[in-house]
Design brief:
The chain is an alpha/beta fold. The protein is built from 34 helices and 20 strands. The strands form 5 sheets. The protein has a 6-stranded parallel beta sheet, with helices on both faces. It has a 5-stranded parallel beta sheet with strand order 1-2-3-5-4, with helices on both faces. The longest helix has 23 residues. The protein starts with 23 loop residues before the first helix and ends in a 5-residue tail after the last helix.
């Protein structure tokens, strides 16, 4: 029989119903007490008491589920605001100057049709200035933060992920510091001459200033989380003391809709990254309108972050609201603030007092509140008195953030987009597209900011930049604050620190080949890296990164030896502890296994790949993944990595459209090399043999970590098909050919007579080409040279560089043209990639050129049948070779039909 005391309505069922109540009478008393409060004092009072009890229990150490949201008010009440450690009047003047110069810079550029953004920084100015003046640690070290009490970063400092659209304000501050000139500000978005300022934070374009490219929405927050995590990794492994470094990420509320923005929130809390602070500028607007028109983005973000385990600090309202909230004994004001949707809040910031009184201060209690306020005070509440616009409120929020321990913190700061730019721009839906101010608007802005700019300076058509002078009190104060915090920011520094060459033994092992054992190139590369990790001089610098496929790539042998990084260590008995290759987690582990997240893996790779600049510690990240899920899925991150000038090895495992058997359309990669070729920072190779891998990796280490390091990263594709791995042949110039992109691996019999041709192949396709060479000779008396093309893309880039040199009057010949010069017969190129990959070099090949490839979607079947489907198998190569020879009269036309019939290609 059912228990009549149990609820029957499914909506009333609770998980507590399955836990025996050991004192039902006591439970009933508590419920009756709550009912009494509701009857006598109302539900608001009951809610208040429940929250107070919940808060008290949490502070007492009781384990309770956290509340996902709080009232729409500041987290730090006015009574708890810390003493401000600075000269508020002076900082207000500095901020006003930065606002002016940022607007002037964008306006000047926009009049030339260059565009720019002014509204984002206008809303976030104090969010940055309080950080620069009181919190952000510089790279010079020597001192402690007056705000956090933490020691300086000792050469690393804090890492700042700055909102891309706010870059004019950062340039304006750097100009005030004296690190940029007025001429450089005037060249905003004018980079072609080599001296202008890039539109957004682009390290490659301004390598002494910017550290992190952030304007591709969503990549900033993801990168910031993994940067904070990598800082801890360096600390745990004894590479660098990063204990005083904090990562700050400045984001937009609209940006948080990007899936990458929230993809790793639980990682940050799970690993206790209290060295991480997000600052989200909640101006309630995205590019074309409200972020949440009919709800509240701040409350939504609070719930999302709290649910992910973050500490949340809200700074929503300025000091003009403090007395009103103190008098709100009924809770009507707090309730009203919580129910007004964002789009209406935006409208209130742009309307007059009469509108605000009518549409916000509704009901008797709120009408009485508004009656005590002047029209100017009513307007001030919504137009200016936002928490993100008031330095004392921002300072209090940041102090709460840096003093929190045990997990990351997000500061939700409410602002008005376009603040101080005038009524025509403030809080308007179109302000993202408003790129310039009129001279009259500049006069209005000058008066509002109380800047000492005379009318005569605004008499012309060009708005002036304004600098108070390098010896002015403002500039002296600015330098004093930064000196106390460890030097200027943002700043990017690279201190030359080449890595010693590793032992030659691991490379020689691959160059000797594997005898009769068939080995996949994936396994050969993993073996090389495993051996290099044992190197006494550089082995600790390797950072293997795997998105949950280590066993697929044969890397499980590294588990017990290198260990898997975990800040928690291993607090359990692994199920495979009795096996040799058991799953071993360690606080000092070297491997990073990210789980099923390619985006997170690339973000981790970026942090490691730029450690040479961020921390002055060159690391060698080695990121291996399913090839299909690299440049196709995370190409935007690889582009940002190129901007950030990252260095390391990116490896597309299980490469090729026909080699990845059984997985089908969404796994078979036949185009990543084409995608990689569009990234100027990527040096891509498709090695066929283990000895080629050895030569390429050794050269990559030299180029990226040697005496003259280059800002590139390597992309290697390797295959999971076991094949014979011969020793490196003793061919003249073979190492140069491997590195440059092509060499003749197996020439035809030199004394043979008959038609000739050249077979070019890369990766696993060389085995089809070698088989085709044999069939052509034995069945048709046609003789082919087989060439290994290690990089179609590098051959193309060399040829393009040569063309440019020729235009300058230099006498040069492309490497591929020289390599194939005089080679008899047509050239037939084949690979496990779509034809555009080998076709990259066609215009620099003097012979008749044709390619075979795997264009189209992949499919599931055996390797043999899929290769026959795409007509890239050995027999298809033979038929195509005969056809190309028939076109030039070197074989009879009927020979082609005979070959098709012989090999079953006429079915």
């Amino acid at each position: 029989m059912s228990d009549p005391s149990r609820p029957t309505d499914s909506s009333a069922i609770s998980e507590l119903d399955q836990i025996p109540d050991r004192d039902r009478e006591e439970t009933a008393e508590w419920q009756a007490s709550l009912d009494a409060v509701v009857r006598n004092a109302g539900p608001d009072r009951a809610v208040y008491l429940m929250r107070r009890v919940h808060e008290f229990a949490a502070r007492s150490g009781m384990s309770l589920p956290g509340l996902l949201s709080s009232d729409y008010i500041n987290t730090v009440p006015a009574s708890a605001q810390p003493e401000f450690d600075g000269d508020l009047e002076m900082e207000s003047r500095i901020t006003a100057l930065n606002r002016w110069n940022a607007a002037a810079m964008v306006t000047r550029g926009s009049r030339l049709g260059l565009g720019g953004h002014i509204s984002t920084y206008a809303s976030a100015a104090w969010l940055y200035e309080i950080g620069f003046n009181h919190f952000f640690q510089g790279k010079d070290g020597g001192g402690t933060s007056r705000s956090s009490g933490a020691e300086s970063g000792g050469g690393s400092g804090d890492q700042l992920f700055l909102q891309g659209h706010a870059s004019p304000g950062i340039y304006a501050r750097v100009f005030l510091e004296g690190r940029l000139s007025a001429e450089q500000l005037n060249a905003f978005r004018r980079e072609a001459g080599g001296h202008g300022l890039p539109s957004y934070p682009h390290p490659r374009r301004l390598p002494w200033l910017w550290e992190f490219p952030t304007v591709s929405m969503g990549l900033g927050p993801l990168g910031a989380i993994y940067q904070a995590r990598f800082n801890r990794y360096l600390q745990a492994r004894g590479i660098k003391d990063t204990s005083a470094s904090r990562v700050w990420a400045f984001l937009g509320d609209g940006e948080m809709d990007e899936p990458e923005s929230i993809a790793a929130l639980t990682l940050a809390s799970r690993e206790g990254l209290d060295n991480l602070t997000f600052v989200i500028n909640c101006n309630l607007q995205r590019l074309d309108g409200p972020v949440r028109s009919n709800s509240k983005i701040v409350q939504e973000l609070e719930a999302r972050f709290r649910g992910s385990g973050w500490n949340v600090v809200k700074t929503l309202w300025g000091e003009a609201w403090d007395p009103l909230l103190n008098q709100d004994t009924t809770g009507d004001l707090v309730r009203r603030l919580g129910e007004v949707p964002d789009a209406q809040m935006q409208t209130l910031a742009a309307r007059d007092a009469a509108y605000i009184r009518k549409n916000f201060f509704t009901g008797d209690a709120l009408s009485a509140v508004s009656a005590s306020l002047s029209d100017a005070q009513v307007v001030e509440l919504f137009e200016n008195s936002r928490g993100g616009h008031e330095p004392l409120k921002v300072y209090a929020a940041y102090r709460a953030a840096v003093e929190h321990r045990g997990g990351p913190t997000v500061v939700l700061a409410q602002t008005v987009k376009g603040h101080t730019l005038g009524s025509a721009i403030e809080s308007r839906n179109a302000n993202h597209q408003m790129k310039k101010l009129t001279m009259e608007q500049f006069r209005e802005m000058r008066d509002l900011l109380e800047l000492p700019i005379p009318d005569s300076a605004l008499a012309g058509e060009q708005v002036p930049f304004w600098h108070p002078g390098k010896d002015s009190p403002e500039v002296r104060y600015l330098h004093e604050r930064r000196a106390a915090l460890g030097g200027p920011l943002p700043v990017r520094r690279v201190i030359a620190k080449p890595l010693p060459e590793p032992s030659a033994k691991p490379f020689e092992s691959l160059e000797k080949g594997f005898g009769h054992q068939e080995v996949a190139t994936t396994m050969a590369l993993v073996r090389l890296v495993k051996d290099l990790m044992r190197d006494q001089r550089t082995g600790a610098r390797w950072v293997p990164i795997i998105p949950d496929e280590a066993r697929t790539f044969g890397m499980e042998s590294m588990f017990p030896t290198a260990g898997i990084y975990s800040p928690l260590g291993q607090n359990y008995d692994p199920v495979d502890a009795d096996q040799l290759l058991y799953y071993k987690e360690s606080k000092t582990g070297q491997l990073i296994i990210e789980g099923i997240t390619e985006a997170g893996s690339v973000a981790e790779f970026a942090a490691a790949a730029t450690s040479y600049a961020t921390h002055g510690e060159p690391m060698i990240p080695f990121y291996i993944f399913y090839a299909m899920f690299g440049f196709q899925r995370t190409g935007d991150q690889f582009w940002a990595l190129g901007d950030q000038m990252g260095r390391g090895f990116v490896v597309g495992g299980t490469a090729g459209r026909t080699t990845m058997t059984g997985e089908g359309l969404q796994h078979g990669d036949g185009h990543s090399h084409l995608l990689a070729s569009t990234n100027p920072a990527v040096i891509s190779y498709d090695p066929a043999f283990a000895f080629e891998i050895a030569v390429i990796v050794r050269d990559g280490l030299r180029r990226m970590y040697g005496e003259q390091p280059e800002n590139v990263f390597y992309y290697l594709t390797v295959y999971n098909e076991p094949k014979h791995q011969p020793a490196m042949p003793a061919l003249p110039g073979i190492e140069e050919g491997i590195v440059r992109g092509i060499y003749r691996y197996r020439p035809a019999e030199p004394t043979a007579t008959g038609p000739r041709l050249q077979l070019l192949s890369s990766g696993t396709a060389i085995h089809w080409a070698l088989r085709a060479q044999e069939l052509l000779a034995s069945d048709w008396n046609v003789h082919a040279d087989v060439w290994s093309v290690t990089s179609w893309t590098e051959l193309r880039r060399d040829a393009m560089d040569t063309d440019a040199a020729r235009m300058r009057g230099e006498e040069r010949t492309p490497y591929v043209t020289r390599a194939l010069a005089g080679a008899p017969g047509p050239v037939l190129a084949v690979s496990d990639w779509m034809r555009q990959v080998p076709d990259q070099i066609s215009q620099w090949v003097e012979q008749d050129y044709y390619s075979l490839g795997t264009d189209g979607f992949g499919l599931s079947d055996t390797r043999a049948d899929v290769r026959r489907h795409f007509q890239v198998d050995a027999e298809s190569i033979v038929v195509t070779a005969l056809y190309r020879l028939a076109r030039t009269g070197q074989v009879a036309p009927e020979t082609v039909a005979q070959a098709r019939a012989r090999y079953g290609l006429d079915q």
